[in-house]
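Morning!

This is the sequence you dropped in the shared folder:
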Amino acid sequence: MNGGRLNKAGHARRSANGLVNIVREIGEMTAALWWRFFDWLAQVEWRKLMIVWLLVLIFGLTPFGYPEQTGAFVMLSFGLKVLAGGKRKAEIEARDATSHADKEGLERRLVEARMAALQAQVEPHFLFNTLALIGQLIETDPPQAARIHQNLIDYLRATLPQMRARGAGTLGRQIEMSRAYLAIMQARMRSRLAVSIDVPAEMQTATFPVMTLQILIENAIKHGLEPKVDGGRIDIRASVDGQQLQVDVLDDGIGFNVHAGDGVGLTNVRERLRILYGARAQLVIEAPLTGGTRASIRVPYAPDIFAKRAP
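The structure's back. Tokens below.
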């Protein structure tokens, strides 16, 4: 008897728990549907909502409709739209904006990681060749070896802080790093590389994305001048036109293939400019009539009055 009662009690409890779960699921589903309807009501245009009301009213007047419920639906949706729709729409737009900002933040971090990875690929090769050159010159030309050693120290001193930087540094810092890099390359290429840098002092405090100038210079040497038997010349210039800063890297090398796409370096430069400035910045690659290649970075001109000018 007791066992039968216990079984019946257990069965009743299970039935009650099952009923509670069903009621809970119905409640959760109802709440989800309600909020979906509320979100739709908050965002739908008034014109579309009026069309829905008209269709509902027409259906309510048919033999299958419910006129009272139809009228209640129209009045309820109108009241919700007027009283709470604006607030809910603002909440949804704020949520979407936050999601978009998070996506842009992820894109920014991805580009920074790509740039760091790109620099990590370049640095070991460049350092190995420079150290090997210093080792050779120690035997044949100690003063030149000492100069290149100092140039390497200057380059690393300028490069390492910028590799850790995020976003934009100053144009002066980029020029400082480029001078040290080009001094080393001139020691390696000797008379095959001539360099000219024309950047007015007042522009050197302008904000400028880190490592981008370096990539343009490396591209000019690797793809323009090194394949050329006699080498050539690199000119670095900066100018301001209205509210835009333009930095040009020109070489008189073998030129570029207009049908070839960007390499990894140029692709990352374009992506960094897009993330930092959107449509306000661009990388332009051109073939001057005199030959060679001109690579130009154009960004909004924003001088930093508190920044120290690079020497």
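Headline: The radius of gyration is 34 Å.

More detail when I'm at my desk.
O.
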